[in-house]
Design brief:
Shape: globular
Oligomer: single chain
Strand content: 5-15%
Order of helices and strands: EHHEHHEHEEEEEEEHHHHEEHEEH
Structural class: alpha/beta
Number of strands: 14
Distance between the termini: 27 Å
Radius of gyration: 23 Å
Length: 440
């Protein structure tokens, strides 16, 4: 039976965790801090649970230098639940802005029905949600938005870019920004979208934005024309520096770089949490109010404890983050970014040295540092099966590509140690050499 240190695991999620965190977690699961209770047993409303939430928020704040005007929420449902939460919450913010404008122009003393009718008309004529579709997860998010708004009709979701259109029907590129079809802002004579949504790193297709797109950083002189940027960072969370102040919302499921399943982290600007109309007003203009379990203001007001949260999972996330802070010291997440880049380069360098054997799926400028996707001899099923079998025999595990696209995928998350990447790089060299020599 192999020891944990013998296995090099590259699964896309659930992903590897640092061994010291697992060892400490094993103790906490049986007897946390000599209390005689498991962390899975303590009350989520206890002082201990509240301390764990506070400590985990503090660690994340330190890692990403999160400004004071942002709230950190712990939620259920993974990134997929946030596909819905983003629409419910930010459409509500958009409606409230329109309601306040109507009240200011028409007068608060006017019949409420006049306000409702005006906003209902604006919802029908002006509501737009912009999505940058660059992979499987942003596609799913845009489809969820369309499903949620279907009772209102069609045309509310604007796919500003679908990278398949310029890549033979497949994901693997990010088209130039000047080709994107973003909803024009009011200052440009347009309607202004409720938000712009993108997935920072696409795990299935191995595509990662090198940085926040410049067209999403342009600041309007008119506060009413502000662009709200939403980023799904589930698979590259805390792997590189992020200017949180440029975003309205950042979210991520924990099971890749942060911890274990059943926790979703949401970073949301506080002013947005106070910009909601009443549920009755939303319903009157034809928009659903956010379900309570996805309602960000409700979750924030209750310190993320509106319902029973998995305290053990939140504690694990905190331990992972504190481990990064201890490892990299003052460098913080910048230290982890340097290491992630080094590991990714090590693998891509081998793949690029043997183009006749390995073909990297995404374009060079958008290659993911977290999910390295490639094919063998153009997708030769026999060769790829052999590659995976030989890898398993060497305890290189979790390399099979996503079921929807096939191929090979090596996930280079934070907890994948450098020595495991070195082992994979050596195997890639050996396989290429033997493959060229027809001994495989």
């Amino acid at each position: 039976m192999p020891d944990r240190e013998d296995v090099a695991y590259f699964g896309a999620g659930p992903a590897p965790l640092p061994t010291p965190v697992l060892q400490k977690g094993a103790e906490a699961f049986v007897n946390f801090e000599n209390t005689g209770l498991s962390l899975a047993e303590i009350s989520h409303r206890s002082a201990t649970a509240n301390r764990i939430l506070s400590d985990t928020r503090s660690a994340l704040t330190s890692l990403l230098s999160i400004p004071d005007n942002y709230e950190i929420l712990f939620m259920h449902g993974g990134g997929s639940a946030e596909f819905s939460a983003v629409v419910h919450n930010l459409v509500a913010v958009w409606v409230e802005k329109r309601r306040r404008d109507a009240v200011a122009e028409i007068g608060a003393d006017k019949d409420e029905r006049v306000i409702v009718e005006r906003v209902r008309r604006e919802v029908r004529d002006h509501l737009r949600l912009d999505y940058l579709v660059t992979g499987s997860w942003s596609l799913k998010a845009s489809q969820e938005a369309a499903n949620l708004l279907e009772p209102l009709g069609t045309g509310f979701v604007n796919v500003a870019v679908d990278s398949r259109e310029s890549n033979g029907g497949k994901f693997g590129t990010i088209p130039p920004e000047d080709t994107w079809r973003l909803t024009p802002r009011r200052s440009d004579g347009g309607k202004r979208s409720a938000f712009v949504y993108y997935c920072d790193n696409e795990t299935v297709d191995g595509v990662e934005f090198p940085h926040l797109p410049s067209c999403l950083t342009q600041v309007s002189q008119n506060a009413d024309d502000e662009l709200l940027v939403v980023a799904d960072m589930s698979s590259n969370f805390i792997s590189r520096r992020v200017d949180v102040s440029k975003y309205a919302v950042i979210f991520g499921g924990a099971q890749k770089n942060i911890g274990i399943t059943d926790v979703t982290l949401v970073i949301v600007r506080k002013d947005l949490l106070s910009s909601y109309p009443s549920p009755s007003f939303l319903h009157a203009v034809g928009v659903w109010s956010p379900p309570t379990i996805l309602n960000w203001p409700v979750i924030a007001k209750n310190n993320s404890l509106y319902n029973t949260m998995p305290i053990f999972s939140i504690w694990i996330a905190g331990e992972v983050m504190r481990g990064l802070l201890e490892t990299h010291g003052e460098k913080g997440v910048a230290g982890q970014e340097k290491l992630a880049n080094e590991k990714a380069k090590m693998i891509y360098d081998v793949l690029d040295r043997h183009p006749e054997v390995y073909q990297v799926v995404p374009g060079r400028s958008v290659r993911s540092r977290m999910n390295i996707c490639f094919r063998i001899r153009g997708g030769d099923a026999t060769q790829e099966k052999t590659f995976l079998e030989y890898a398993e025999a060497q305890l290189l595990q979790g390399l099979k590509g996503h079921r929807s696209v096939g191929g090979i995928r090596a996930s280079n998350y934070n907890a994948v140690p450098l020595k495991n990447v070195q082992k994979l790089a050596a195997y890639l060299e050996d396989f290429a050499s033997k493959s060229q020599g027809a001994s495989i």
